[in-house]
UniProtKB/TrEMBL annotation:
CDD domains: HisKA, REC. This is histidine kinase. Keywords: Coiled coil, Kinase, Phosphoprotein, Transferase. It catalyses: ATP + protein L-histidine = ADP + protein N-phospho-L-histidine. InterPro entries: BphY/WalK/GraS-like, HATPase_dom, His_kinase_dom, HisK_dim/P_dom, Sig_transdc_resp-reg_receiver. Its EC number is 2.7.13.3. It comes from Geomonas subterranea. Residues 148-175 form a coiled coil. Residues 196-406 form the Histidine kinase domain. Residues 2-119 form the Response regulatory domain. It comes from the Bacteria. The modification 4-aspartylphosphate is found at D51. Signal peptide: none annotated.
Amino acid sequence: MKVLVVDDSRNDRKVIRYNFEWHGCEVIEAANGRQGLDLATAEVPDLIISDCLMPVMDGFRFLHELKKFHELSDIPFIFYSAVYTGRTEAELAASLGATAFLEKPMRPDELWDEVGRLLAADVAVERGTEPRTLPEEEFLRDYSQVVATRLEEKVRELTDENESLLRLNGELERRVVERTTQLESANRDLEMFSYSVSHDLRAPLRHLEGFSQALSEEYAARLNTVGNDYLDRIRRSSRRLADMLDAILELSRNTRGKLNKVDVDLSALAREVMGQLVRSQPGRMVDFRVAEGMVARGDGRLLKVVLEHLLGNAWKFTLMKDPAVVEVFPTEWEGRSAFAVRDNGPGFDMAYSDKLFTPFQRMHSQEEFPGRGIGLAIVKRIVSRHGGKVKIEAVVGQGATVTFTV
């Protein structure tokens, strides 16, 4: 048996083809009614299985045109549709001479059995009269009614969906406002807490520093070596804690406030920061290499803070290198424009790199490379506020590279 399958869905055609070919049928395919009509006139199939809703020419028009050909009018025609499945559509299909109207989806074995049953019933029907061809005006009237009904249903569905989306959008906006308010409140509370902690701790720290200094000046001779060492450790620890409080306040300042985004000349900023570093230690010889034309969209004040920390780290960690080399250059990261600061310092073991963006986490001892351990945490916060990302790569003994996007 030769079967013509007409459906704009390639997957649906494939399922029907495999099903009927497995049962020994020859299957030919068309993607719309116009192609189906051309194939039917050329191949004269024994059975046509057609979808209803298709581009160019739908199933109803296809069947109507097919019935105009006397040699094709007796071919069993089965509609197999998932969209046009109402009573009006079934009545139109019957008036056009369709053998049956089946609703998608059916299991392959169910479809095969149902088609077999329909064909057997169709053969048993007496065909003493000529197949009736629906007049054009009658077809257009019934066809227009089916299409109009379907369009009305679709409009109602879309209207309901649109109203649902509007309700969801309103709910989402309300939640966003609530969460934003909560976040702003939490940020204010955190800012107040940071300020309070820093302010409240400074007074006892000043007392600790002052009294330990007085103790050292006035009573050092009465203390033995161990006592003076303990006293010195107390003073160093108090100064370290004061530095950490300053770092907390700096971290808070750089992660709040409104961003003023403009086109920032990173090349000029890098040269400015390097000039400050050179003036701070004029005796050092560092080979600074800054690429020209680096421009980023962001807050100029905060991007300068980023470069101050990154170049400050590179300056510090190349102290023992000869020659010391620090580079600033454009690059690419995950398909986005990025910028990098590279040095030839001591580097570090990448197994612990995640720690570096956490406040007060360090790879080197305070005695080896002094610092507060807050620089990269500030860099990450600022870059994140700009919608970017930052990463660090290093090799022990060969330096490190920090790459960021904004």
